[in-house]
UniProtKB/TrEMBL annotation:
The keyword Metal-binding applies. It comes from Roseateles asaccharophilus. This is Glyoxylase-like metal-dependent hydrolase (Beta-lactamase superfamily II). Its cofactor is Zn(2+). It comes from the Bacteria. Residues 193-213 are annotated as: Disordered. Residues 14-194 form the Metallo-beta-lactamase domain.
């Protein structure tokens, strides 16, 4: 296994930005750079990594607020999310004002993602699954070789994503978790958008929102 990652909570919402890299090529991507860009770039530099791309699970301000500026300043492509989140991207300036974030730069993703797409990072390949419910265009990034999944705000340790925002849908969220995430295997560890890691097996046993009945 050559995939490595570091979780870096950013913004007042303590959003888990993930720095992913292939330890054979040192090629790296930042998943959900919501803010605090100098700290994120310092983490890249400290490890001697070559930042290749920005990957977005969805376009809420705490996940995507820094993406436009980072892409412009570093010349990086923005990969994701699914085009169902276009309206959230369009509304980033309003989101930043509403929640007291620094002004967010608008952007157009270099590549929209679809269910079943793959992303390469050095010698690693991750699979994209479209997991709507928290937002219409939410995606997750799954590394079968590393038994890891970066799930954004779909699932948390002991909880699930909110569905009361525009475009949210509780039934869709539950279907995304049970039909898209569970088949990845009980031993798969997931990195959520907030809070600690857990495994799909642990959540199937104990999460009151989605545990097996």
């Amino acid at each position: 296994m050559s995939l490595r990652y570091l979780t870096l909570p950013v913004t007042p919402f303590a959003q888990n930005c993930s720095l992913l890299w292939c330890d054979q090529t040192q090629e790296a991507a930042l998943v959900d750079p919501g803010g605090e860009l100098p700290r994120l770039l310092a983490a890249v530099a400290e490890r001697g990594l070559k930042l290749q791309a920005i990957w977005l699970t969805h376009a809420h301000i705490d996940h995507a607020g820094g993406a436009g500026q980072l892409a412009r300043e570093q010349g990086l492509p923005i990969i994701g999310p699914h085009r169902g989140d276009q309206f959230w991207i369009d509304g980033l300036p309003q989101q930043s004002a509403m929640f007291g974030f620094p002004p967010a730069e608008g952007f157009t993703p270099t590549r929209w993602l679809e269910d079943g797409d793959t992303l390469s990072l050095g010698r690693e390949t991750l699979t994209v699954r479209h997991c709507p419910g928290h937002t219409p265009g939410h995606v997750v990034f799954h590394s079968a070789s590393a038994r890891r999944c970066f799930v954004g705000d779909v699932l948390f340790a002991g909880s699930i994503g909110r569905t009361d925002f525009p475009g949210g849908n509780h039934a869709e969220l539950i279907a995304s978790i049970t039909q898209r995430l569970w088949p990845m295997g009980d031993d798969t560890v997931f990195i959520p958008g907030h809070g600690p890691e857990s495994s799909f097996g642990a959540e199937r046993r104990s999460n009151p929102f989605v545990r097996d009945r």
